[in-house]
Amino acid sequence: MRYLVTGGAGFIGSHVVLALCDAGHDVEVLDDLSTGHRAAIPEGVTFHEVDLLDAEATDAVLARGPWDGVLHFAARSLVAESMEDPLGYFRHNGMASLNLIQSCIVHKLRKFVFSSTAALFGGPDRAEAIDETASVIPGSPYGESKAQTERVLHWADRVHGLRSACMRYFNAAGADALGRAGEDHAPETHLIPLVIDAALGRRPALRVFGTDYPTPDGSCIRDYTHVADLAHAHLRVLARIEDRSVTYNIGNGLGYSNLDVIRAVERVTGRSVPWEPAPRRPGDPAVLVADPRRFHEDTGWAPRFRELEAIVETAWRWREAHPEGYGDRISA
After folding, report:
1. Catalytic residue among 3, 89, 142, 213
2. Is residue 89 annotated as part of the catalytic site, yes or no?
C-alpha cells in the first residue's frame, strides 16, 4: 500500500513511518519541521517539507496520488501553550487539518487515520479507566482543536464517504527498540525524558506537580503507552475502516504515578533522580487512564511493552545513544 504520513518527522509520526516501512508499505512524509526532525525520517522515504496551512502546497502533495490512505499526526500539542495561544492552536490544528481533509476529498481518498488525544476528556476527576462512551469535555484549546477535527471527519464520512479512525491516546513514551528513532522535543514536556535527564544531571531537580492527590502516593497517575505499540495500533486500525469510521481510546490500561516513573528510572539507570514537590498545576486530573478493551476486541491489538520499566529502558537507551537528540537544533 501507499500511505502519506503528515507529521512523520515527529515523535509518534516517525515511529508510525518505521512500522509502515517494516510492514513493506510505500510511505511518504509531509512535515514542516517546526517541531519534527529531518533525521527522524528513514532513508529512502520521500519527504515533502510543507506547512498544512498552505492549502495549495498541501493539495499538490495529495495530487501525487493515488494514495491508499493518509495518517495525520501534524499538530501543535502543548496544553499550556494552547492556553496562552488558543487562536494559534485552532489555526495550526483546526485549519491545517481542514485543508488536508478537503484535499483528501478532492482526490477521492477513502482512508484517514487521525491522531487524537486524551485531552478531550478534561472534565471532572474520575477513578475508573476512560472508554469511548466518556463525555468529550476538552479542558484546553488543544483538546478542543482535536475535538473539532473529529467532528469534521464525522461529516466528511457522512457526506463524502471519507472513512476515518480517530485514535485517542494518552501518554506516548519510550523509543524504537532498534534505536532508529526516539523522543526529542524542545522544550521537553514529557515526564519520562525529563526524569531521565534529571538522572543524568542534564537538568535541575525534577519538580513533581502535586503530591497531595487522592492516589496511593499522592502524585498524579497516568497511562503510559510505548510509542511502538501505538504505531502498530495505527497499522491495525487501517483494516477496520474499509467500510465504516471508528473511534478508539488507545492505551495500556495501566496507571503509573509520577513517583512510580521516578522509581522506574532509578531502577533502570542505577542512578538517583533528584526531585522536589511543587504545587498542583491547574487542570491536572488525579488519574487519567485509558480503557482500551474495545480496540483490543475489534482488532486483537495488545501492547507488547506493558511494564513501565520496559518502556523506560528503551527511552534510556535512546537518550544514552543520542545525548543531543537528533542533533539538528539550531543554536541562537
Report:
1. 142
2. no
pLDDT in tens, 16-27: 999 999 999 999
Report the b/e string of 32-63 with b at 16+ CB within 10 A. bbebbbeebbbeebeebebbbeebebbbebbe
Q: Is 192 domain-assigned?
A: no
Residue 52, domain extent: 2-173+225-251
Quick one: cell of 51? 506547512
* 31 domain residue, yes or no: yes
In a domain, 199, yes or no: no
Domain count, the chain: 1
CA gap 206, 218 in Å, rounded: 16
More confident residue, 272 or 324: 272
Instruction: Render pLDDT for 243-290 as a digit per residue (tens, 0 to 9).
Output: 999 999 999 999 999 999 999 999 999 999 999 999 998 778 889 999
> Do the Cβ atoms of 296 and 302 come closer than 8 Å?
yes
Spatial distance between the Cα atoms of 94 and 187, rounded to a whole number of angstroms? 23
Q: DSSP characters for 295-308?
A: HHHHH----S--SH
Residue 183, domain member (yes or no): no
Q: Rounded to 5 degrees, what are φ and ψ at 148?
A: -65, -40
What would the grid cell of residue 166 be?
480517530
Band of pLDDT at residue 229, cut at 50, 70 and 90: very high
Residue 332 has pLDDT above 60, yes or no: no
CATH code, 121: 3.40.50.720
